[in-house]
Design a protein that fits this description.
- The structure is a single chain.
- Helices cover about 75% and strands about 0% of the residues.
- It is mainly alpha-helical and about 180 residues long.
- Helix 1 packs antiparallel against helix 3.
Amino acid sequence: MSEIASKGQLRWSFARWALFSVPLIVLLGVASGRVSNSGYGNPWFDALVKPDIMPPGWAFGAAWTLLYVLMGLALAMVLNARRAPGRGIAIVLFVLQFLVNLSWSPIFFAAHQVGTAFWVILVMLALAIATTAAFWRIRLAAGVLMLPYLAWLCFAATLNYQFDVLNPGAATLAPTTPKAQIEF
């Protein structure tokens, strides 16, 4: 059976995949952070000693939103590449690295396991490298779209490591909450 699609049909097929994958990736990424109470405003996190390279809080929301959009577009390109050799393994690698990605915020921000989160981010980085290589073989543009994610993961791993070094008792840190006490 011979299937020849026009350029318009191919673009529309990619658009359908992108309209599915991009919002899904962004929604799941945001949900992971929200459920974990990630970032500033989390009393435990606010009490930690911050590394000198710590960016302002708004930078994390902006960076992760952009990275999730790029990841969603890269995934859409691979999903749209029907019959491409290695497509199945590339999708499996993406799902694995993304599941590890979603687990990081609950481990760091909710469970307060800074050291464990560092090892998780290293696993995430290894899987993301494998995913990028697999995407690269299928669609060069998909591999290129994953590069900012790899760069950010390297930075995030460095930041995570510094949090671990600066806060050796982070798991047992209980931030003090102001109490209104009136003594007579």
